[in-house]
Amino acid sequence: MQSDFEIRDSIYLVQGPHVLDLHNGFDFRTLHYSVDNRTVVLDWRRSTREGVATTLPAGLKIEFREVSEFRFLPRNAALPFTEDDCMDSFGYWTDEDWIEGVIILDPTQAPDPEWLTAIGFMSGAIIAVRADSAHAKIET
């Protein structure tokens, strides 16, 4: 998949001069899947938690285009709903038996082309997408 951003250490989105900590600095807000447009759009807002700098961008959207596969794996019902908006990791998903959860690679590794891009949340929910491209729009 082609993208106009990079993910580092499974939580940092890097685009141009921006290095955004999606785990600590932003709260996940919405998911929009359009069958007609074959897009998935994910929306984060700067967190209002104590200690989060107000100088961070106001928000971020990631749009996956030409989506050919979309999955939403459910949250762990035993966890509090306060964990739903906190991203845990940005990596990859496979249905192989040897792995459970989101696969995190080190920078020297390349993902298997059959793997889906995956975003895991502290609640256990996972969004998995196969798309031709991904585009980040940082809202300043």
Keywords, separated by commas or semicolons:
140 residues; mainly beta; five-stranded mixed sheet; four-stranded antiparallel sheet; 0% helix; globular
What's the short story on this structure?
The chain has 140 residues and is mostly beta strands.
Could you please describe the fold and organization of this structure?
The protein is mostly beta strands. Strands 1-12-7-6-5 form a five-stranded mixed β-sheet, with no helix packed on it. It has one domain (2-139). It has no helices and twelve strands. Strand 2 (6-8) and strand 3 (12-15) form a beta hairpin. The chain is globular.
Question: How many strands appear in the DSSP assignment?
Answer: 12
Task: Find the structural class using helix and strand composition.
Answer: mainly beta
Q: What's the overall geometry?
A: globular
Identify low-pLDDT runs.
Answer: none
Q: Helix content range of the residues, please?
A: under 10%
> Beta-strand level of the residues, as a percent range?
over 45%
* Integer count of domains: 1
Order of helices and strands: EEEEEEEEEEEE
Number of helices: 0
Largest sheet: 5 strands, mixed
Order of adjacent strands in the largest pleated sheet = 1-12-7-6-5
**Residue-averaged pLDDT, rounded?**
96
SSE layout:
Layout lengths: L1 E2 L2 E3 L3 E4 L2 E4 L4 E9 L4 E8 L12 E7 L3 E5 L13 E7 L22 E6 L4 E5 L2 E7 L1
Parallel strand pairs: 1-12
Antiparallel strand pairs: 2-3, 3-4, 5-6, 6-7, 7-12, 8-11, 9-10, 10-11
